[in-house]
Design a protein that fits this description.
Strand content: 25-35%
Distance between the termini: 29 Å
CATH superfamily: Gcn5-related N-acetyltransferase (GNAT)
Strand order of the largest sheet: 1-2-3-4-5-7-6
CATH class: Alpha Beta
Structural class: alpha+beta
Number of strands: 7
Largest sheet: 7 strands, mixed
Helix content: 25-40%
CATH architecture: 3-Layer(aba) Sandwich
Amino acid sequence: MTTDSYVRQARVADAPALAQLRWAFKQEDYEGDLPSRARSMDQAEQWIRERLDDGRWLAWVLEIEEEICGHVFLHLVERVPEPYEENTPVGYVTNFYVVPSQRNRGFGTALLEALKLHARSLGMDVLIVWPSERSDPLYRRAGFRPSTELLETR
């Protein structure tokens, strides 16, 4: 099987696993200990469920042996209509995470490729991301380039 065969678009039913991975992702940022002011997992799950359900956010998951091991999210940011241009949204890419045991195996690239393919199918011509220092090389390999304010791909 290829790495892309493990990637699929997230479903509302994936919200509990996505919330757990979000917390794992942030725990890495905080080196294992979330601050005492941390939100509950239930709040994160509800937020994810609502946004996947109404289409405000899209996500792709890495699923290996029926376990979700990674994800990337895409928010469709509407643009104000223009008289001479298509009004396609800008895509905000965020919350990109693969569990440590599955890293460096091509799964992150497969997640980003699935997201980019979907964005192209919607006619989107701009994806933006604010990468971490650790994720910057992966985004650059995926075609994102620096601009004066952010990274984008066309």
